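User: Predict the complex.
Assistant: Input components as received:
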Amino acid sequence: MKTLKIGVLGAGEIAKGRHIPAFRHVEEVSVTAVMDINEERAQEAAEKFDIERVYTDLNDMLENIDALLITTPNKYHAPAAVQALNAGVHVLCEKPMALNTKECKEMIEAAEKSGKVLTIAYHYRFMKEARAAKRIIDSGEIGEPLVIRIKAMRRRKVPGWGVFTNRGLQGGGALIDYGCHLLDLALWLTGSSKPTEVSGTTYNNLSMQKDQVNEWGTINPATFEVEDHAAAFIRLENGATVILETSWAANIPEDEETISISGTKGGLDVFPLRLNKAENGVLLNTDITWMPEEEPFEILQAKHFAACCLGFAVPLANPYESLYVSSIMESVYESAKVGRSIQIKRE
Ligand SMILES: NC(=O)c1ccc[n+]([C@@H]2O[C@H](COP(=O)([O-])OP(=O)(O)OC[C@H]3O[C@@H](n4cnc5c(N)ncnc54)[C@H](O)[C@@H]3O)[C@@H](O)[C@H]2O)c1
C-alpha cells in the first residue's frame, strides 16, 4: 500500500538516474510531486516517471507530501531541508549535507524541533562491502582503529557538466563532491569519533592548465573555481588518525578508491574487502570470497528511508555524523587557506 508521498526538489541527473527509479522499488512509496527551478526539467521528469504534479512553489509542494528528496546543488540543501522540516515533512538530502557546519546545525535543529527524519544520501554505507566491513569491525576483529587511510582518487575525471566547479553553488570541488563519500564511510566504519584537528591542502593546478586531458568532458579554466585535489591529516577524539587524499584529476596510473584501516588487533581494507592479521606466529591476509546477495545500494537506501519515515527504523546516516564530515571538509578548506592546522571545537 502506498502510504508515503514523496516530492523531489531538483529534477537533475541524480534524481532521475538514481533516486526516482529506486523509489519505484519501494512498496510503501509513491513519488507524487516534483519541482525544479527550471520548470521544463520538472515537467520532463513528471512525464518520464509518471509523477502526478509539478510545483513551482516549495510551500505548496510541502503541503502535499510526507517526505522531500533534495537533489539541488549544495547551496540549496540547507534552506530547503529547514523549510521542509519546519513544515513537518521528512527529508532525504543528497550529499554533502550542506555548504558548511553552520547550515548543518540549522538542519539538525529543525529536525530535532520537528521530530521528523533527516538523513543524508551517503550511499556508500549501503554497499555490500561496506556493510560487511562494518560487521567485521563491530565484532572486534581488528581491535581499536589506529590509522585510517582514505583514497578517493580519479585520474583525469573532472565533471565537465552541471555546476560541480562553481564554488558558490557547490562550496568546493573534489573533496566536497567525491572525497566526502569515503570520509563518511571511514568515520562510520570506525565508530564515528569526533574530529578534533585538521591540517589540509588543496590544489587546482591541473584544471587551470590549457588543453587538459580530461575523460569527463571539457573544463573551462575561466569558470573553474574549486579544488581538483585535496589532502588532509585529521586527528579524531578516540586517538585515531585519518590520512585522506582525494582528487578528480590526479597524475596517477589509475583511479583508486580505498579505505585501509590499521587497528590494534588487525587491519581491514575495503574495496576490495580484505582482513590482514598476525596470528599463531604467521602473517595472514584473508580475502572475502563470498558476501550475501543484497539489493543495489540505491534501492536499500530508498527502502531504508521509507522505513525511517514510517517509524520502523532510525537513519543509518544520521545527521550528527554527517555534521562531522562537513566539519572536517570545512576545516580542510580553512587550513588550506590559512596554511596551518585547524582545531575543531568541542561542543
Ligand atoms: N550521491 C552521489 O553519488 C551524487 C552524485 C551526483 C550528485 N550528487 C549530489 O546531488 C545534487 C544534485 O546533483 P546532480 O548531479 O543531480 O546535478 P544536476 O545539475 O543534474 O541537477 C540539479 C537540478 O537542481 C535544479 N535546481 C537548481 N537550483 C534549484 C533550486 N533552487 N530549486 C529547485 N531546483 C533547483 C537544477 O535546475 C537541476 O535540474 C548535488 O548536491 C550533488 O552533490 C550526489
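The pocket of nicotinamide-adenine-dinucleotide is lined by residues 9-15, 35-38, 41, 71-74, 76, 94-95, 121, 123, 162-163, 177 (CB under 6 Å).
Let me know if you want any component modeled separately.
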